[in-house]
Design a protein that fits this description.
Helices cover about 15% and strands about 20% of the residues. It is globular, with a radius of gyration of 18 Å. The chain is α+β, with helices and mostly antiparallel strands. The protein is built from four helices and ten strands; from the N terminus they run βαββββαβαββββα. The strands form three sheets. The protein has a four-stranded mixed β-sheet, with helices on one face. A four-stranded antiparallel β-sheet has the order 5-6-7-8, with no helix packed on it. The two termini are about 30 Å apart.
């Protein structure tokens, strides 16, 4: 695999969308080099958070780069005071926390919310679009990304959802389209999932 990409790979970087922990581990094993994830957007001059070359974890986008402040803000569905389910049965009965049950987090407060960024690398505003600028940045200069993050015990940030990609079904259950796309997309009978 390394030779297919020229054979001189020293590091791989990913930043457009968070990699699943499984894919992240797979890429590390297949290429035998560090695979660093990052997070950012055009409005903050690309990187806001990034893993270092020495970081061994998977499934998150690392910690803040030196010029960027990062905070999580409560949303309707995610709160900085959310408590992780106490046992596997409670975990299976809820829809808010995703993935597999983590007994190390059982009963603990898990900070989750919309990722907000501030610093000298954040844009001043959209050119001649004050209304759109006011929707993206608040009065204190925090850029609201629309992504939902969850702090990990080691200080890394895991992107867990999109603020506006959650909708409520008629029976009251909340659903994230990405989770459905991910589950359906693993079938050998499905080539591409489209909305």
């Amino acid at each position: 695999m390394r030779d297919a990409l020229g054979g001189r790979i020293r590091v791989l970087a990913s930043g457009a969308a968070p990699l699943s922990p499984e894919l992240h581990k797979f890429l590390k094993v297949v290429f035998g080099v560090p695979v660093c994830q990052g997070f950012g957007m055009t409005e903050n001059a690309a990187p806001a958070l990034s893993q270092t070359l020495a970081y061994k974890g998977c499934g998150n986008v690392g910690g803040p780069v030196p010029c960027t402040e990062v905070k999580l803000v409560d949303t309707d569905d995610y709160k900085c005071s959310d408590v992780y389910p106490k046992d596997e049965a409670a975990f299976e009965a809820q829809v808010s926390f995703k993935g597999q049950f983590n007994p190390n987090l059982a009963g603990k407060v898990v900070e989750r919310g919309e990722v907000c960024l501030r610093g000298p690398n954040i844009f001043h505003g959209y050119y001649k679009l004050p209304t759109e600028t006011a929707e993206a940045k608040d009065s204190q200069g925090w850029l609201h990304t629309g992504d939902i993050g969850m702090w990990q015990p080691d200080g890394a940030l895991q992107i867990v959802d999109r603020k506006k990609n959650i909708f409520k079904l008629a029976q009251g259950e909340y659903v994230a389209p990405e989770a459905i796309e991910g589950a359906v997309g693993t079938s050998k009978w499905v080539m591409q999932v489209r909305d």
